[in-house]
Amino acid sequence: MQALTNRSKMVSDKKMTFLEWIYLPAIVKGMFITIKHFFRKKTTINYPEETREFSKVYRGLHVLKRDDQGRERCTACGLCAVACPAEAITMVAAERKPGEEHLYREEKYAEVYEINMLRCIFCGDCEEACPKEAIFLTDRLVPSDYERLPFIYGKDMLVEPIDTALRVDVSARQTENLLKFKQNKQFAHNR
Amino acid sequence: MDWTMYIYKTIFLFIILLVTLLVAMYSTYGERKVAAFMQDRLGPNRAGIFGLLQPIADGIKMFMKEEIIPLSANKKMFILGPSIAMTTALLTGVVIPWGGTLTIFGHEFPMQIADLNIGILYVFAMVSIGVYGIMLGGWASNNKYALLGSIRAASQMISYELAMGMSIIALIVTTGTLSLHEIVDQQQGMHWNIFYQPLGFLIFIICAFAETNRAPFDLPECETELIGGYHTEYSSMKLGFYLFAEYVNMFISSAVIVTLYFGGYHMPFIDHLGLSGNVATLLGTFFFFIKVFFMIFLFMWVRWTLPRFRYDQLMNLGWKGLMPLAIFNILATGVFYYFTELT
């Protein structure tokens, strides 16, 4: 049989030598292994004080981005909801009224935009499907709760604040490959 | 004995009691820390700095827990079990020489509560009675797992006590006395008994692991097979007493091992320092405790290295391994002394 890894060892049932039979050398060897671990660097992360560093492309809680002038980018096209494999996204579209130009970038916007965080599998397909670069996954976590209802996140939880200082940074997820992909002429309609 | 001696002994008794309890308390903390460090973790570090208040928090938790005595249990025996375990564990400390002699206002005070001329036998007697605590507790619980645990405890302790006693016989042949005080005095300098009785020491320490019910011999309470073994039905401070008695036992047996094999309170090269009597005595006690702490660490080190024995392996090792080896040790020691005495 072919070995799957190079770490497999052949087992034999040969008679034990005297040193093997009294086990003491093996025990001493084992104790040296444990004492080596005793002085090794500990892997524990003291949670509330320290947090684990996330990967640059970590996919956590979503954010609905605003553009430079603080207008919502989402036009409620529904592509994210279509792309969503877990069917976690629902939205209701509405027409922009005159005088709301400073709130919504295009004539159509999402009146209701809800993501069920219990359904969401954080795959990032919504982000990929979005033609307006409106939805992004961030390195934030979805906090736990005792009820199911609070996990349906509406626009109040998802849209980032207008204040430029409080905007959610998603630049970490824009890897070089992704930026190259976006510069492709073929996808120029995205902007 | 005059009245100062009585007062001194009473005070010293309390000090020893407190020290024993304190060391046992912090052994639980040490155990968790050692276990954690050997598994690349940090261990308890929330209660107080470095988690040093953890034993106190654990104690409060134990006291606050609901006290449950099963309806089908034999109530008297159920209560008697942990009491015996704890009492006998504490009683053994009486004969251990904790240090040399203190001289206060011209009176000489030995740092040992009772210098029995049969000190070792007393230790063995107490350890043997300690088994009753576990046996009674497990039996009185009227629970099959507890009963199985206590049966295992009883058979394990009886099996290993034989080999332990025989390893001690060889030691007594070399020392020629049963008094712990005299045994320590013979080991002045670097004449530690471990160099004269290495095989006996090995047998003794293996048996000590088994007698204190610690891994790799923790069959009486092995969680995977017997839930909790003999203390399955226990709760609150009765459980605490059982768990605590184990740590007291560990401390006391470490002290016994140090006394018998590692020169007790004797420190090599102490005579060359030219210290006065009392300072040298206290330094010796300090050194004694360092040795004891190292032994406790060894207990924990072994526990977190080796897996548990299977029951038949345990009996094989006890009866077919250690017993013949101990008998051989006695014979070898006897023959050696017979021929060297003659010449």
Structure write-up:
The complex is a heterodimer of chains A (191) and B (343). Chain A has 191 residues and is α+β, with helices and mostly antiparallel strands. Chain A contains 6 helices and 5 strands. Chain A has a domain at 62-190: 2-Layer Sandwich (Alpha-Beta Plaits). Chain A has a 3-stranded antiparallel beta sheet. Chain A has a two-stranded antiparallel ribbon with strand order 1-4. With 343 residues, chain B is mostly helical. Helix content of chain B is 68%, strand content 2%. Chain B has 12 helices and 2 strands; from the N terminus they run H-H-H-E-E-H-H-H-H-H-H-H-H-H. A two-stranded antiparallel ribbon of chain B has the order 1-2. In chain B, helix 10 crosses helix 11. Classes of the chains: A alpha+beta (191), B mainly alpha (343). At the A-B interface, helix 2 of A face helix 1 of B.
Which range does the strand content of chain B fall in? Answer: under 5%
Q: Report the CATH architecture of one domain in chain A.
A: 2-Layer Sandwich
Largest sheet of chain B: 2 strands, antiparallel
Spatial strand order of the main sheet of chain B: 1-2
Coarse shape of chain B = globular
User: Roughly how many Å is the radius of gyration of chain A?
Assistant: 27 Å
How many E strands of chain A? 5
| Elements of chain A, N to C (H/E) | HHEHEEHEEHH
Number of domain units of chain B: 1
Structural class of chain B: mainly alpha
